[in-house]
Design a protein that fits this description.
heterodimer; A: 113 residues; 7-stranded mixed beta sheet; 4-stranded antiparallel beta sheet; 11 strands; B: mainly beta; globular
């Protein structure tokens, strides 16, 4: 049972490039989330999806777009990467009614130069 | 989710019991108290959740007084491997999103 899987694990982008971070969960959870964590800081919610077909903005959505492709997959896209988006990105999932018991992936370490 | 206040950092030594207190004065009737643990270079991990009194599992204990305005995460006989950031969250489990605060950075020394 893999849980939450994120790809890639590491990525270096040049300013202005675009990329998509992939996330998949195999726990049949309805809710999925994307967070970013800057060095020495807590997690900040970028976007979340309470169920398949719905997405909502979190605390820091600017510069990002998301797609809930199906119940398993939730992707995060950077259309034009900026150095301020250098961070570690975490995907998480949880079950309806048990939102606060979330499972996290191992993270994607993104550097924008 | 209700606002929480916890110490920014704590230090302790191997073999000691560590207690991390979280203040949540505006907790609502339907809110649960949840703690996560995050090791360096890893995603957070759910460790314990409670509503009132005391909850214990293989990792930690959670003490919640009757007024529920605070809670204490207790780690018995810590080791170096307990060095991590610990997050306290308070909210209704049927809410649609999870917001994390800054957490408490716990450092364990030999």
């Amino acid at each position: 049972n893999a849980g939450v899987t994120q790809t890639p694990k590491f990525q270096v982008l040049k300013t202005g490039q675009s990329m998509t971070l992939q996330c998949a969960q195999d726990m049949n959870h309805n809710s999925m989330y994307w967070y970013r964590q800057d060095p020495g800081m807590g997690l900040r919610l970028i976007y979340y999806s309470a169920s398949e077909g719905t997405t909502d903005k979190g605390e820091v959505p600017n510069g990002y777009n998301v797609s809930r492709l199906n119940k398993r997959e939730f992707s995060l896209r950077l259309e034009s990467a900026a150095p301020s988006q250098t961070s570690v990105y975490f995907c998480a999932s949880s079950e309806v009614g048990r939102i606060t018991e979330a499972f996290f992936g191992q993270g994607t370490r993104l550097t924008v130069v | 989710l209700a606002k929480t206040t916890q110490p920014i950092s704590m230090d302790s030594y191997e073999g000691q019991e560590v207690n991390i207190t979280c203040s949540h004065n505006n907790i609502a009737t339907n809110d649960y108290i949840t703690w996560y643990q995050q090791f360096p270079s890893q995603g957070p991990r759910f460790i314990i959740q409670g509503y009132k009194t005391k909850v214990t599992n293989e990792v930690a204990s959670l003490f919640i007084p009757a007024d529920r305005k605070s809670s204490t995460l207790s780690l018995p006989r810590v080791s170096l491997s307990d060095t991590a950031v610990y997050y306290c969250l308070v909210g209704d489990s049927s809410a649609s999103k999870i917001i994390f605060g800054s957490g408490t950075r716990l450092s364990i020394r030999p």
